Amino acid sequence: MTTRKNQNSILVLATLGVYLGLVLVGATPQILAQAAMTKQFNVKDEVEVKDDLDKKPDPTKKELDDAIEAYSDRIEEFVKNLKKLHSIEEFSSNWDTFDSEQTTFSPCPETGTLRSTEKSGHIDRWLVPVITEANFISEHFTWLADCLPFDGFPNRTHASSSGIKLRYDKAELLHELSIKLKSEERSRSLYTGLLAAFAEFKVEENVDYELNKLLLKHTSMTVSGDQVFIITRLPRAGLDSLL
């Protein structure tokens, strides 16, 4: 009941503001009526959308378990693709390096349209498709993020975002996934849930068991402010043994 009263107050104030503004510039009664009604419906739509965004449910235990499994699959695929390039002598841990970042935004409410921003230095042409494929992980994790103000979509004022950082500097291979929330409290809640799912995660026997075990051994989670990070740091020696 309180929420409905607040919304009605917003509608009345917004409509009154528009009406008085048009009166000052000498609008006709017909225009005044139409403008008032139009603004009322627009404000009502905005309030309802905000309510929908605020009511986003927390992920279930199964969804968190699936998220950890998806991360494991993606990091495994990334390393295997590097291994394939190494087998045809198109990637060398001695000479090649790369540094890439991508953030993916998903509109709220979802429309199926995504937008990405990228930042990277020079990447060897053989590595480009491997990096591009690995960057898709950011698209698959936007659903865990909160809807925050974003003006990058037409007719949408909010978006959820996830980022991926990939780097190899001859010392280590870095694979860092970030998920942005609307507050430190929200990020710590998601971190706690993902950490519990990670602790219970079991590598299935029908996958590359040893590779997965090694990658998960070098994977950790952290929370910083309003972001949760899942980070895999594979030392040069570990990467060399895999290649």
Structure, described:
The chain is 50% helix and 25% strand. It is an alpha+beta fold and 243 residues long. Strands 1, 2, 3, 4, 5, 6 and 7 form a seven-stranded antiparallel beta sheet that branches. Strand 1 (98-108) and strand 2 form a beta hairpin. Helix 3 packs antiparallel against helix 4 and helix 3 (61-87) packs across helix 7. 25% of the residues are buried. The model is unreliable at 1-16, 18-25 and 41-49 (pLDDT under 50).
List the helices and strands and how they pair.
Blueprint: H1 2-24, H2 29-54, H3 61-87, E1 98-108, E2 115-120, H4 128-135, H5 137-140, E3 148-153, E4 156-168, E5 172-180, H6 184-200, H7 209-217, E6 219-224, E7 227-235, H8 236-242
Antiparallel strand pairs: 1-2, 1-4, 3-4, 4-5, 5-7, 6-7
Helix pairs in contact: 1-2, 3-4, 3-6, 3-7
